[in-house]
C-alpha cells in the first residue's frame, strides 16, 4: 500500500505491507532507530513517538493508520545546534544511564509539558505510567521533568553550574548526547550491507523427546536462505562451564575440550529440557520472512513429565533431566562448621525457624538480547556484535570452547547496550550460533529476540528455598545461624552457575552481624525451568533477605526492638578487618552509624504515633529495616580461583599518551549504564592533572589495545578496573618524571609532577615540560636514557588482595489498606556507604535503580510457570509487572564515605550492592504492620491477595 | 511484528464501510490500539484477513451535547472526551477515564474500540457508560439499531457487536441523577487488573428511585449488579442499608471472575469493598447535595 506521511517535517512516501507496524516503518524503512522496540505490547513506552503531537507507542499502531499524519521522533527534537530543554534537563539530572528507554520517555515528557507547563511530582509519575525504567528508576527523571518545565517557562535559564572534574564531583556524564538524541546504535539498530535475518525456534515443551523435525515447508517460504537444525551443527561444541567448585563433587555435562565441563548445545539433539531449548533456526532476507518461516517448522515431540521444584527434583523417582546426573543434583556444598552450629542451636535460649522462598525473578531488561555475526572470507575474520557485558570472555569461550576457531580470528564488539541486570553476563547458545550461521550463508546475519523469546531463553535468577534457624540468648545476642538451601538452577548450568548459590549466598548469610556459629548447606539442583544466572544483587540479595528476615523474627520472639537487636549484634568499627566465619573478611565501616542515621531520618521514635494515625485512616502502618553488607570488587584472582572460577578477575587498563598530548585509556570494564566513561576519566584526570576533555575511554571492542578485559559485574568496575586506570596513570607519571630527570639532569626526587607538567623543582621556570611535550619527545625517541623505551604508554593491572564490602541500612515505611490489603510505599530511606565516591550523581542513579528493582521483587515480580507443562507464563511485561513511576514513594538517600583499604581509590562497590536490603526492608515493614495479627513471615512477592489469604485463613481458624 | 497477513481498506463513506464489514473476515479498525496488540499476540480471530479502517469516514469523531443528551462518535478518543466540557456533567465517566493515566492509551483508545475490543483498558469506561444507561447506535446496511450497553455484557461475559454491524456512536441519555462516582481499587498499576465500580443514583427525599451499579475489571466485561440495585430501590443509603442490603445481595450474585491467578474469595471480597465504598461515597454526595 502506498503510505505518505511526514516524519520530523520531512515527507516520506513508500509502499508498505498493511501489517507493518509504525515502529518497524520508522526503524527499518525510514532508518530512524531512536524509537526502541522493548516489549511490543504497549507497556514499556520505549517506542514512544508523537503522532500529530500525541504520545503514541509506535508498536501499537499500523503504519498505514499514520497516513497523512505528522510524526515526531526523538531524532526531530534537537535543533542542529542545541538539545531540546527536556533533553538537557535529563542530562543534567543524571536521568540517563544506559539510555535505552530515554528517547521514549523524553517524547512522552515533551507532550506532558505542552499540556501542563508546571506538573507536580504526582502528575509526572502518573503521566509516565506507560514509560518504564528498569535501570535508574524514576527519581532523577521526575527531577529532570520539573527542571525542564522550569526551563521551558523561563523560570530557570542557566542550567546547572558545571561541576568540577575531580573525584567526588557530580560531573555531567559523557557519551550521553547520542543517547538523548537517539543517535546511539544499539544491537537492534545495526545494519550491514547484504545483511540477512535469523529467527530461532524454541521448544514449546519443558521436557520431551524430539521424535522428528520437518523443515521442508519453512525452506520453501519466500526469502528463506537456510534452515538449520541439530543435524547441521554437530561440529559445534556445547556451551562451556567455567566455574567448578574444587571442594565438592559436582555434576555437569561433558565437553569435548576435556578442560572444562559442558552445558547445552546450540540445538537440542534428542531431548528438550526446558521450554526455550533451541531446536532450529531460519535465516531469511527479512526478519518478518524469518519469523513467518519459523512458524512452518513442524516438530514431533513425545512429552515427558516435568519437574520444576528443586526439592521434588532430588527425590528418587523424580523425572531425570540428564542421564549422567543422578537425582538432578549438580552439587551439594557446605560452608561453615555444621556440627558447631548444631551444638550452638541446641544450647541456645531462644531458637526461631522459618522456611523462606526467594522467588524466581526475570531480569526483563527493556532491551532484549541480539547478535549480529559476520565472517569475512578474504581475511578469515569473524566479527560478533552483541549486547553482552562480557565481550572478552565471549571471544575466549566461543573461539576456544564452542566454535573451535582461532582466538585471534574473532573480534567481539558491544554496541550501545541497554541494562543487563546480570542476564547479559552469560554466554547463550544463540550467540555462537548466529556467528556460525553467518559463515554458512556467507552473509552477515542478525538475530534480535522477541519479548516472548526472551522470557524463555534468557537466564532467570534467585529461586532458592531456604530453611533457616536463628538462635541466641534472651537478651538478644545471636549465637548461631543455619541455612539449609535448595537452589533451582534450571535445566542446564550457565557458564558461572555455581557462583551465585555457593559463595555469593553461602558466605554472605551473616550479613552485618557478628554471629559466632553460622553454616550454609546447599543442594544445587537441575529442573525443567529456564537456566538461572546472577541478577542485580546476585547472591547477596538472597543472603541478606535471609538474615534480615531471620533477625526480625528473632527480635519479635524476644520482644526486643529489632533495631536494638541489630545494634547488639552488628560488627563494630574496631573489629575490622573482620572475619565473618564463612570466608569473607569485611574491610571497614561503621555499620551502626548508618543504622542510626536511617532510623533518625525515618522518625523511628515516633513509630507508634504513626501507626496510630494510620489506623484511624483504616491502614496498618509498618516500618521495616534492611541492614546489609555486600561483597563486591571481584577479584582477588587467587581467591576466586579458590572458589572454582576458571578465570582471572584482575582489572586492566592500557594507557596511551599520543604525541598530541591526548590520552586514550582502554579499560577492561564493560560499561552498560554505569557511566565509567565519566567516572574512570574523573579518576584519570585527577591523577594526570589535565583537563578531562584531553582523555578518551575505550571499551566494548576486543580489538582495542588491551590484553584482556574481565568486564563489569557484581559492582567490581571502579574498585578493580578503575584502580587499574589509576595505577596506569601513576605509571605514566612515573615514566614522565624519569624522562624529565634524564633531560633536566636532575635527580628523580627533585622532579615534581603537577598540573599536568613535569617540573624540576630547583629551576621550575626553565626545567618544565607539559605531559604533551614529554609524550612528543618520547615519541621522537631521539634521546632516551639507558634502558628506557620510546613512547608514553603502559598497561596496568590491579588485582586486589581482598574484596571490598559496601554496607548500609535501608528503611521502608508502608501502609496496608485494612479492607483491600493493598500495600502502599509511603517513604523509603536508603543509607549507604560505598567508600570513596567518584561521582555522586552517577552513584545516586545506581541506588535509585537498585531500590526500584528491589521494590519489584518485594511486591510484584515472579516468573510464573505452568505446573503441568512447565511453560513460562509471564511472557510479557503485563504478566510480569515491573515497578512503574507511581509505585515509588519519596526516597531519601543518605551516604557516608568509609574508604576501603582493599584498593588505592578507597572505593567500594556501588553498582548492584544496594539492591539486597530493599526487599527485606519492605517485607519486614509488611510483617511489622501485621504484627498484631500475628503474621511473622510472608514470601515474596507480597501481594494483596496473599495477605488476604493469610489473614482470611487466620480468621477462619479463630472462628 | 504481526504474524498473519492482512489486507487493509479505508473506505470514505459509511455505505462503503457497511458493505465491507458485512463480509466474512473483515473487521472494523477503530483507531483503538487494542486490536493491534491482539493481532500481534495472535489472539484476534484467525479468520480475520481484512481491516476496515474508519479513519476517512466523516462524522464519526464528533461529540454533541444537546438537550442534556451526549452523543459520542465511535472514533472519539478518550483524550477528546476528557477535553470536552460536557464531561463535567458526568463525574462517573470523568473518574473512569481518570483511571487511565497513560497518555498513549488516552489518545489511542476510542469509544468504539471499547465495545469492539473490550479488555482491561476499556472496562472502567464501559462500566461508567453502562451505569449512565448509555445506548450504542449500531448501523447495518439496512437499518439503525439502538442497543443498551448492557447488551454487550451477558452475566459479565463479553458480547460482540451483531455481525456486519458498525457502531457509529454511543449516546448517554438525559438523566436525573443526583450523584455518580467511579471508584477505582487499582493501586500498583499494571500489577493487577483495574478493579473498580461505577455507581449512579437518582433519589427523591433521600429515597432511591433509581440506581446503577456496575463492577469493572472483575469479569470479562463489566457486570451490572441488578439484584443489588433492585434491593436498594426505595431505600435510603445508610451504613446499615449498605451492609444489610447491598453487601448481602452481592453475595448472592454470580460473578464469573476472569483472573484465574487470584483467589476467587479475594476477588469477591474486593467487589464487596468496592460496592461498600462506592455506596458510601454516593451517600455522602447525596447528603451534601441536600444540605
Ligand atoms: S510499548 Fe512499544 S515497545 Fe514497549
Strand line-up across the major sheet of chain A? 8-10-6-17-14-15-16
| Main beta-sheet annotation of chain B | 5 strands, antiparallel
Radius of gyration of chain B: 19 Å
Fraction in beta strands of chain A: 15-25%
- On the 0-100 scale, what is the average pLDDT of chain B? 92
Strand order of the largest sheet of chain B: 4-5-10-6-7
User: How many angstroms does the end-to-end distance of chain B come to?
Assistant: 58 Å
> Structural class per helix/strand content of chain A?
alpha+beta
Net shape of chain B: globular
- So, CATH architecture of the largest domain in chain B? 2-Layer Sandwich
The CATH topology of the largest domain in chain A is Aldehyde Oxidoreductase, domain 4
Any low-confidence stretches of chain B, pLDDT <50, length ≥5? none
CATH level-3 fold name of the largest domain in chain B: Enolase-like, domain 1
H/E series of chain B: EHEHEEEHHHHHEEEEEEEEEHHH
Name of the CATH homologous superfamily of the largest domain in chain B: CO dehydrogenase flavoprotein, C-terminal domain
User: What ligand species are in this complex?
Assistant: FE2/S2 (inorganic) cluster
Briefly summarize what is shown.
The complex is a heterodimer of chains A (959) and B (291). With 959 residues, chain A is an alpha+beta fold.
Explain what you see.
- The complex is a heterodimer of chains A (959) and B (291).
- With 959 residues, chain A is an alpha+beta fold.
- The mean pLDDT of chain A is 96.
- Chain B is an alpha+beta fold and 291 residues long.
- In chain B, helix 4 packs antiparallel against helix 7 and helix 9 runs antiparallel to helix 10 (264-290).
- Chains A and B meet through strand 4, helix 3, helix 8 and helix 25 of A and helix 2, helix 5 and helix 10 of B.
Produce the secondary structure layout.
The complex is a heterodimer of chains A (959) and B (291).
Chain A: E1 2-7, E2 10-15, H1 22-29, E3 48-51, E4 54-57, E5 70-72, H2 85-92, H3 102-115, H4 121-127, H5 139-152, H6 177-181, E6 196-202, E7 208-214, H7 216-219, E8 224-229, E9 271-272, E10 278-284, H8 287-294, E11 298-303, H9 310-313, E12 329-335, H10 338-347, E13 350-362, E14 370-376, E15 381-386, H11 391-402, E16 410-413, H12 430-441, E17 445-448, H13 451-457, E18 460-472, E19 478-490, H14 500-506, E20 517-526, H15 540-558, H16 562-569, E21 578-579, E22 585-586, H17 591-601, H18 607-616, E23 619-629, H19 637-643, E24 651-657, E25 663-667, H20 676-688, E26 695-698, H21 717-744, E27 751-754, E28 757-760, E29 768-770, H22 771-780, E30 792-798, E31 807-817, E32 823-833, H23 840-859, E33 891-896, H24 918-929, H25 944-958
Parallel strand pairs in A: 1-5, 6-17, 15-16, 19-20, 25-26, 32-33
Antiparallel strand pairs in A: 1-2, 3-4, 3-5, 6-10, 7-9, 7-11, 8-10, 12-20, 13-18, 14-15, 14-17, 18-19, 21-22, 23-31, 24-25, 24-30, 27-28, 28-29, 31-32
Chain B: E1 7-9, H1 14-21, E2 26-29, H2 33-41, E3 50-53, E4 63-66, E5 69-73, H3 78-82, H4 91-98, H5 103-107, H6 111-117, H7 123-131, E6 135-139, E7 144-148, E8 153-154, E9 157-158, E10 166-172, E11 179-184, E12 196-204, E13 207-216, E14 223-224, H8 226-232, H9 239-252, H10 264-290
Parallel strand pairs in B: 1-3, 2-3
Antiparallel strand pairs in B: 4-5, 5-10, 6-7, 6-10, 8-9, 11-12, 12-13, 13-14
The site of FE2/S2 (inorganic) cluster (FES) has 12 residues of chain A, from loops.
Amino acid at each position: 500500500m502506498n503510505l505518505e506521511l511526514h516524519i520530523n517535517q520531512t515527507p516520506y512516501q513508500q509502499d508498505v505491507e498493511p501489517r507493518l507496524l509504525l515502529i518497524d516503518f520508522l526503524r527499518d524503512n525510514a532508518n530512524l532507530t531512536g524509537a526502541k522496540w522493548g516489549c511490543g505490547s504497549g507497556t514499556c513506552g520505549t517506542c514512544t513517538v508523537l503522532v500529530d503531537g500525541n504520545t503514541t507507542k509506535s508498536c501499537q499502531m499500523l503504519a498505514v493508520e499514520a497516513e497523512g499524519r505528522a510524526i515526531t521522533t526523538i531524532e526531530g527534537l534537537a535543533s542542529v545546534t542545541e538539545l531540546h530543554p527536556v533533553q538537557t534537563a535529563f542530562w543534567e539530572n543524571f536521568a540517563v544511564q544506559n539510555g535505552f528507554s530515554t528517547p521514549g520517555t523524553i517524547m512522552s515528557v515533551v507532550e506532558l509539558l505542552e499540556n501542563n507547563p508546571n506538573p507536580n511530582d504526582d502528575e509526572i509519575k502518573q503521566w509516565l505510567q506507560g514509560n518504564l525504567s528498569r535501570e535508574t528508576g524514576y527519581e532523577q527523571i521526575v527531577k529532570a521533568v520539573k527542571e525542564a518545565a522550569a526551563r521551558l517557562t523561563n523560570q530557570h535559564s542557566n542550567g546547572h553550574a558545571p561541576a568540577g572534574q575531580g573525584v567526588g564531583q557530580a560531573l555531567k556524564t559523557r557519551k550521553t548526547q547520542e543517547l538523548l538524541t537517539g543517535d546511539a546504535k544499539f544491537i537492534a539498530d545495526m545494519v550491514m550491507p547484504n545483511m540477512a535475518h535469523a529467527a530461532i525456534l524454541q521448544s514449546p515443551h519443558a521436557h520431551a523427546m524430539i521424535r522428528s523435525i520437518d523443515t521442508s515447508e519453512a525452506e520453501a517460504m519466500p526469502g528463506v536462505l537456510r534452515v538449520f537444525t541439530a543435524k547441521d551443527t554437530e561440529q559445534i561444541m556445547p556451551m562451556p562451564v567455567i566455574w567448578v567448585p574444587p571442594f565438592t563433587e559436582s555434576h555437569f555435562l561433558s565437553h569435548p575440550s576435556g578442560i572444562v565441563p559442558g552445558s547445552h548445545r546450540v540445538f537440542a539433539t534428542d531431548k528438550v529440557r526446558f521450554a526455550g531449548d533451541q531446536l532450529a533456526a531460519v535465516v531469511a532476507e527479512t526478519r518478518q520472512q524469518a519469523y513467518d518461516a519459523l512458524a512452518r517448522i513442524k516438530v514431533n515431540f513425545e512429552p515427558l513429565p516435568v519437574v520444576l521444584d528443586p526439592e521434588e527434583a532430588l527425590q528418587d523417582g523424580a523425572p531425570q533431566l540428564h542421564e549422567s546426573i543422578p537425582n538432578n543434583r549438580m552439587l551439594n556444598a557446605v560452608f561453615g562448621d555444621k556440627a558447631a552450629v548444631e551444638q550452638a542451636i541446641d544450647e541456645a535460649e531462644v531458637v526461631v525457624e522459618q522456611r523462606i522462598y526467594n522467588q524466581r525473578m526475570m531480569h526483563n531488561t527493556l532491551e532484549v538480547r541480539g547478535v549480529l555475526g559476520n565472517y569475512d572470507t578474504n581475511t578469515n575474520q569473524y566479527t560478533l556484535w552483541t549486547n553482552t557485558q562480557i565481550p572478552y570472555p565471549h571471544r575466549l569461550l566461543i573461539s576456544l570452547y564452542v566454535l573451535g576457531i582461532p582466538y585471534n580470528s574473532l573480534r567481539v564488539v558491544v554496541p550501545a547496550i541497554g541494562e543487563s541486570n546480570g542476564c547479559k553476563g552469560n554466554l547463550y547458545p544463540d550467540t555462537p550460533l548466529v556467528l556460525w550461521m553467518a559463515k554458512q550463508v556467507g552473509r552477515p546475519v542478525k538475530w534480535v529476540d522477541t519479548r516472548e523469546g526472551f522470557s524463555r531463553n534468557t537466564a532467570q535468577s534467585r529461586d532458592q528455598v531456604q530453611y533457616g534457624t536463628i538462635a541466641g540468648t534472651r537478651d538478644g545476642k545471636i549465637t548461631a545461624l543455619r541455612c539449609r538451601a535448595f537452589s533451582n538452577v534450571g535445566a542446564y548450568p550457565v557458564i558461572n552457575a555455581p557462583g551465585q548459590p555457593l559463595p555469593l549466598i553461602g558466605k554472605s548469610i551473616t550479613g552485618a552481624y557478628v554471629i559466632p556459629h553460622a553454616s550454609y548447606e546447599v543442594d544445587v539442583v537441575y529442573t525443567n525451568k529456564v537456566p538461572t544466572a546472577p541478577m542485580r544483587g546476585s547472591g547477596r540479595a538472597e543472603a541478606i533477605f535471609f538474615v534480615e528476615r531471620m533477625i526480625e523474627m528473632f527480635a519479635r520472639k524476644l520482644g526486643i526492638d529489632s533495631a536494638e537487636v541489630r545494634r547488639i549484634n552488628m560488627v563494630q568499627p574496631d573489629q575490622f578487618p573482620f572475619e565473618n566465619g564463612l570466608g569473607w573478611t569485611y574491610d571497614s565501616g561503621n555499620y551502626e552509624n548508618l543504622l542510626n542515621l536511617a532510623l533518625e531520618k525515618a522518625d523511628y521514635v515516633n513509630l507508634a504515633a504513626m501507626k496510630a494515625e494510620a489506623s484511624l485512616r483504616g491502614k496498618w502502618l509498618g516500618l521495616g529495616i534492611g541492614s546489609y553488607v555486600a561483597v563486591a570488587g571481584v577479584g582477588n584472582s587467587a581467591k576466586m580461583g579458590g572458589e572454582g572460577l576458571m578465570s582471572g578477575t584482575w582489572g586492566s587498563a592500557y594507557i596511551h599518551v599520543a604525541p598530541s598530548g591526548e590520552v586514550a585509556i582502554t579499560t577492561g570494564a564493560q560499561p552498560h549504564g554505569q557511566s565509567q566513561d565519566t567516572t574512570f576519566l574523573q579518576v584519570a584526570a585527577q591523577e594526570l592533572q589535565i583537563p578531562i576533555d584531553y582523555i578518551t575511554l575505550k571499551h566494548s571492542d576486543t580489538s582495542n589495545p588491551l590484553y584482556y578485559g574481565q568486564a563489569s559485574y557484581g559492582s567490581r568496575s571502579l574498585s578493580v578496573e578503575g584502580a587499574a586506570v589509576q595505577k596506569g596513570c601513576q605509571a605514566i607519571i612515573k615514566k614522565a618524571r624519569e624522562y624529565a630527570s634524564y633531560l633536566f639532569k636532575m635527580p628523580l626526587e627533585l622532579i615534581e609532577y603537577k598540573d599536568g607538567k613535569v617540573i624540576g623543582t630547583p629551576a621550575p621556570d626553565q626545567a618544565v615540560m607539559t605531559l604533551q611535550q614529554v609524550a612528543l619527545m618520547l615519541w621522537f625517541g631521539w634521546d632516551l636514557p639507558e634502558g628506557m623505551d620510546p613512547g608514553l604508554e603502559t598497561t596496568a593491572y590491579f588485582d586486589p588482595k581482598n574484596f571490598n564490602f559496601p554496607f548500609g541500612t535501608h528503611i521502608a515505611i508502608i501502609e496496608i489498606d485494612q479492607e483491600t490489603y493493598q500495600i502502599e510505599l509511603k517513604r523509603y530511606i536508603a543509607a549507604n556507604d560505598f567508600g570513596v565516591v567518584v561521582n555522586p550523581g552517577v552513584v545516586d542513579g545506581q541506588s535509585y535503580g537498585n531500590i526500584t528493582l528491589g521494590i519489584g521483587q518485594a511486591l510484584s515480580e515472579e516468573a510464573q510457570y505452568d505446573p503441568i507443562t512447565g511453560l513460562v507464563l509471564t511472557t510479557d511485561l503485563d504478566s510480569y509487572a515491573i515497578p512503574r513511576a507511581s509505585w515509588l514513594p519519596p526516597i531519601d538517600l543518605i551516604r557516608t564515605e568509609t574508604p576501603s583499604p582493599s584498593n588505592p581509590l578507597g572505593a567500594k562497590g556501588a553498582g548492584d550492592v544496594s539492591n539486597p536490603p530493599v526487599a527485606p526492608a519492605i517485607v519486614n515493614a509488611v510483617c511489622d504492620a501485621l504484627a498484631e495479627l500475628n503474621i511473622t513471615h510472608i514470601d515474596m512477592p507480597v501481594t494483596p491477595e496473599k495477605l488476604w489469604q493469610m489473614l482470611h485463613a487466620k480468621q477462619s481458624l479463630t472462628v | 511484528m504481526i504474524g498473519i497477513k492482512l489486507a487493509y481498506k479505508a473506505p470514505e463513506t459509511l455505505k462503503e464501510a457497511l458493505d465491507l464489514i458485512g463480509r466474512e473476515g473483515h473487521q472494523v479498525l477503530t483507531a483503538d490500539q487494542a486490536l493491534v496488540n491482539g493481532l500481534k499476540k495472535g489472539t484476534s480471530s484467525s479468520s480475520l484477513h481484512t481491516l476496515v479502517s474508519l479513519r476517512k469516514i466523516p462524522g464519526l469523531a464528533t461529540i454533541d451535547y444537546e438537550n442534556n443528551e451526549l452523543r459520542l462518535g465511535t472514533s472519539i478518543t478518550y483524550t477528546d472526551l476528557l477535553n470536552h466540557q460536557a464531561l463535567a456533567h458526568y463525574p462517573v465517566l470523568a473518574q473512569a477515564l481518570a483511571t487511565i493515566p497513560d497518555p498513549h492509551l488516552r489518545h489511542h483508545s476510542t469509544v468504539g474500540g471499547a465495545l469492539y475490543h473490550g479488555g482491561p483498558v476499556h472496562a472502567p469506561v464501559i462500566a461508567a457508560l453502562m451505569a449512565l444507561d448509555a445506548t450504542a447506535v449500531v448501523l447495518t446496511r439496512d437499518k439503525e439499531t439502538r442497543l443498551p450497553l448492557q447488551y454487550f455484557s451477558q452475566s459479565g461475559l463479553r458480547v460482540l457487536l451483531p455481525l456486519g454491524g458498525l457502531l457509529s456512536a454511543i449516546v448517554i441519555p438525559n438523566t436525573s441523577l443526583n450523584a455518580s462516582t467511579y471508584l477505582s481499587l487499582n493501586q500498583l498499576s499494571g500489577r493487577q487488573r483495574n478493579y473498580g465500580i461505577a455507581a449512579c443514583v437518582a433519589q427523591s427525599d433521600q429515597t432511591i428511585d433509581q440506581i446503577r451499579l456496575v463492577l469493572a475489571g472483575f469479569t470479562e466485561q463489566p457486570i451490572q449488579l441488578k439484584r443489588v440495585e433492585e434491593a436498594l430501590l426505595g431505600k435510603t443509603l445508610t451504613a446499615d442499608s449498605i451492609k444489610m442490603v447491598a453487601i448481602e445481595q452481592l453475595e448472592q450474585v454470580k460473578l464469573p471472575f476472569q483472573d484465574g491467578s487470584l483467589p476467587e474469595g479475594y476477588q469477591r471480597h474486593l467487589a464487596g469493598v468496592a460496592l461498600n465504598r462506592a455506596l458510601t461515597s454516593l451517600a455522602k454526595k447525596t447528603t451534601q447535595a441536600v444540605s
